[in-house]
Amino acid sequence: MVQKSGYYSRAAAANAEDLRLIKSMTDLAVECALRGDSGVIGHDEEDGDRLKAIAFPRIAGGKPFDVSQRWFGDLLAGIGQPLVTAQA
């Protein structure tokens, strides 16, 4: 199971790309642990989406979900759902 922040988990079988991502993240997590670096392994949006250990204070809750992200629109389109935004 791959889990993010306790809010999302997935139980579907991993495909080749999933396995590659999981391996790269776990390899980096072990390297960071051996160096004594702490944080959450992820692609840092503020550092060119570089895979790294992101400091805990930088990923604290309260950041609104950005529905304008292309990947999210692609996901919705892939399941035939339109993007619905709140009306002001």
Structure write-up:
This protein is an alpha+beta fold. The protein has one domain (2-63). The protein is 33% helix and 18% strand. The protein has a two-stranded antiparallel ribbon with strand order 1-2. Strands 3-4 form a two-stranded antiparallel sheet. The longest helix has 20 residues, at 16-35. It starts with a strand and ends in a 10-residue tail after the last helix. The mean pLDDT is 83.
Quick structural overview:
By secondary structure, this protein is α+β, with helices and mostly antiparallel strands. It is 33% helix and 18% strand.
Please give the structural blueprint.
Elements: E1 2-4, E2 8-10, H1 16-35, E3 40-44, E4 50-54, H2 70-78
What share of the residues does DSSP label as strand, in percent? 15-25%
Question: How would you describe the shape?
Answer: globular
Tell me the domain tally.
1
Assign a percent range to the helix content: 25-40%
Determine the N-to-C terminus distance. 38 Å
What's the main sheet like?
2 strands, antiparallel
Question: Would you tell me the overall average pLDDT?
Answer: 83
Order of helices and strands: EEHEEH
The number of helical runs is 2
Number of DSSP strand runs: 4
The structural class is alpha+beta
pLDDT < 50 runs, ≥5 residues: none
Strand order of the biggest β-sheet: 1-2
The rounded Rg comes to 16 Å
